[in-house]
């Protein structure tokens, strides 16, 4: 069985963001980057499938972007993927979801992956499109927002998370693409021996132009910092002083404190 | 401009979010037609053309068939935009339709800014406008961003749609109900919720002590529940409980849309967060810029 995991590197969402020089994206200066959180669940699920199938499946992990994306690829290799693929693109942030999906589809075309895992969305762009479009381009089944996954031979039962905590149960066969929701599993931490082993694993690098022939279908007009909508009071400074002021406000404005 | 609105139907009922599509189309000033894979017993009470496909035949979830139904309606109606709610139904189906039409898709629209569609970037800390470069465009709108305020008194003009020889790519095997809720947050007057900003599981008793001091219930954001720090029945948000207490205290919660949707109707909101720019500030009446683990003990001391 051949498995592909598509991962993206995103900034730590706890960072402060400002708009970059060309006004269409965030400025990368001072940002710490990490693996997109949803993709950690995708990597973990792929590795679990491999472990459950007696190590027979072969897992490729792929990422598009500048050289810094080698870091999350290495993490995925240390988590248990077999081979890394870096589709190098210095300006991947300018590519729209269609172009990203088309690029990955181009890479996949002659590989015949049985099972593809992606995150359900990225934490920065959050379009939730790439996985689904990739499946459509490859003509394989696609199930999104998965929080439960079981595979028996080539038959899959997956649970999709719906609003209100309801789940829908879906059955389908390989080949298929799964987009992973938070909570699907518990992503492992790479151990030191596995980090060392990962250094010896294959890492293939291709320029993104090898696979991308499509123009963008959507583009950014401009990026900006939202005007503060909250008309709320902002308290800053000494914690005891703030606690006192907050209590005063609560006594004044709510009925819950007398 | 013409918009084709894709309504949602689940467990035998039309979802109210379908009306948000109508509100969006009206805000856009677009002529509208609707698509529903549902039943005649539960039609949206809105005037205008509605393409109806029988849910008994095509299922409540069957993306391959639903895609083909939407494409058939697109063929008949020739709309400029095809609009979905950004929900588990919409974000699943919209890209399939976009790929088939080779149309650009703009996801989770939060507003219309000088005629351009506005979306969030980096957990809504930044925003951007997105433009389509294709003739037709697929749109998904953020749940709760466009409120339908009119009277739903109309009745649609129904045109039935059927597919020939369509085969589903997967089998929908039914629903699994939400986990039984041991904690009913919907009636609580005060809720103090824990977010990832508390740092670690060991810190939760301090937040629980604040909830007790305020006579309230302990709630949680999704990451805290996913990490196993608190049980699912305490989760506030789209995939947890929707709450509207008199006082909501968000401790170390950044304010992802999935959380805000579940608590934005609270009467009074206090947010405690190190990051002054955290999106929770949008709904907070008071924003305390501080480390939760320093501020909360100080507040408890003053309450007792």
Q: How does this structure look, described?
A:
- The complex is a heterodimer of chains A (258) and B (304).
- Chain A has helices spanning 37-52, 70-79, 97-108, 130-138, 192-198, 239-253; strands spanning 2-7, 9-11, 33-35, 58-65, 83-88, 115-119, 141-152, 155-161, 167-173, 176-180, 202-207, 218-224, 233-235.
- Chain A has 258 residues and is α/β, with parallel strands linked by helices.
- Chain A has a single domain (2-210), classed as Rossmann fold (3-Layer(aba) Sandwich).
- A nine-stranded mixed sheet of chain A has the order 9-8-7-10-6-1-4-5-11. Chain A has a two-stranded antiparallel sheet with strand order 2-3.
- In chain A, strand 8 and strand 9 form a beta hairpin.
- The longest helix of chain A is centred in the N-terminal third of the chain and has 16 residues, at 37-52.
- By secondary structure, chain B is an alpha/beta fold.
- Chain B has two domains: 2-160, Rossmann fold (3-Layer(aba) Sandwich); 185-303, Rossmann fold (3-Layer(aba) Sandwich), CATH 3.40.50.
- Chain B has helices at 17-28, 55-58, 63-77, 90-101, 204-213, 222-226, 257-263, 292-303, and strands spanning 2-6, 9-10, 13-14, 31-38, 49-54, 81-86, 104-113, 116-121, 126-132, 137-142, 157-160, 171-176, 190-194, 217-220, 247-251, 268-273, 286-289.
- In chain B, the strands form three sheets. Chain B has a nine-stranded mixed sheet, with helices on both faces. A five-stranded parallel sheet of chain B has the order 14-13-15-16-17. Chain B has a two-stranded antiparallel ribbon with strand order 2-3.
- In chain B, strand 15, helix 7 and strand 16 form a beta-alpha-beta unit.
- The longest helix of chain B is centred in the N-terminal third of the chain and has 15 residues, at 63-77.
- In chain B, 54% of the residues are buried.
- At the A-B interface, helix 3, helix 4, strand 7, strand 8 and strand 9 of A face helix 4, strand 7, strand 8, strand 9 and strand 12 of B.
- Strand 12 of chain A pairs antiparallel with strand 9 (126-132) of chain B.
């Amino acid at each position: 069985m051949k498995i592909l995991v598509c991962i993206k590197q995103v900034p730590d969402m706890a960072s402060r963001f400002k708009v970059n020089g060309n006004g269409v994206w965030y400025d990368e200066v001072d940002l710490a980057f990490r693996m997109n959180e949803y993709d950690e669940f995708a990597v973990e699920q792929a590795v679990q499938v491999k472990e459950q199938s007696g190590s027979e499946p072969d897992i490729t992990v792929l990422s598009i972007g500048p050289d810094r994306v080698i870091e999350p690829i290495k993490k995925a290799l240390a988590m248990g993927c077999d081979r890394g693929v870096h589709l190098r693109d210095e300006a991947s942030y300018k590519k729209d979801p269609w172009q990203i999906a088309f690029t990955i589809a181009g890479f996949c075309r002659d590989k015949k992956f049985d099972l593809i895992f992606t995150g359900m969305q990225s934490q920065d762009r959050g379009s939730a499109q790439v996985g689904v479009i990739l499946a459509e381009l490859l003509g394989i089944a696609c199930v999104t927002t998965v929080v439960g996954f079981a595979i028996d031979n080539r038959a899959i039962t997956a649970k999709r998370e719906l609003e209100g905590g309801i789940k829908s149960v879906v059955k389908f066969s390989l080949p298929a693409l799964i987009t992973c929701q938070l909570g699907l599993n518990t992503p492992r931490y790479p151990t030191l021996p596995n980090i060392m082993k990962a250094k010896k694993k294959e890492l293939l690098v291709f320029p993104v132009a090898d696979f991308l022939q499509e123009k963008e279908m959507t583009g950014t007009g401009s990026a900006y910092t939202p005007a503060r909508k909250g008309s709320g009071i902002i308290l800053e400074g000494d914690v005891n002083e703030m606690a006192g002021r907050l209590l005063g406000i609560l006594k004044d404005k709510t009925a819950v404190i007398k | 401009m013409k918009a084709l609105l894709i309504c949602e139907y689940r467990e035998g009922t039309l979802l109210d979010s379908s009306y948000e599509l109508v509100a969006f189309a009206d805000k856009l000033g677009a002529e509208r037609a609707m698509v529903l894979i549902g039943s005649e017993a539960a039609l949206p009470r809105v005037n205008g053309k509605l393409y109806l496909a029988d849910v008994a035949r095509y299922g409540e979830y069957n993306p391959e068939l639903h895609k083909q139904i939407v494409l058939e309606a697109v063929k008949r109606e020739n709309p400029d935009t095809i609009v979905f709610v950004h929900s588990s139904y919409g974000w699943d189906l919209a890209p399939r339709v976009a790929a088939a039409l080779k149309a650009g898709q703009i996801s989770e629209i939060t507003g219309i800014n000088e005629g351009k569609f506005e979306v969030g970037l980096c957990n809504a800390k930044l925003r951007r406008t997105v433009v389509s470069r294709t003739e037709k465009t697929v749109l998904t709108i953020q749940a709760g961003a466009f409120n339908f305020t009119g009277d739903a008194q109309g009745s649609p003009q129904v045109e039935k749609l059927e597919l020939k020889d369509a085969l589903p790519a997967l089998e929908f095997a039914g629903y699994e109900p939400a986990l039984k809720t041991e904690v009913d947050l919907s009636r609580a007057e005060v809720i103090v919720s824990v977010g990832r900003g508390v740092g670690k599981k060991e810190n939760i008793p301090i937040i629980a002590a604040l909830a007790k001091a305020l006579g309230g219930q302990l709630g949680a954001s999704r990451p805290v529940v996913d990490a196993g720090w608190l049980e699912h029945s305490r989760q506030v948000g789209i995939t947890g409980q929707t709450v509207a207490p008199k006082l909501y205290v968000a401790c170390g919660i950044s304010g992802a849309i999935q959380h805000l949707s579940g608590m934005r109707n609270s009467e009074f909101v206090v947010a405690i967060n190190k990051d002054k720019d955290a999106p929770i500030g949008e709904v907070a009446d008071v924003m305390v810029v501080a480390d939760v683990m320093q501020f909360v003990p100080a507040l408890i001391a003053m309450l007792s």
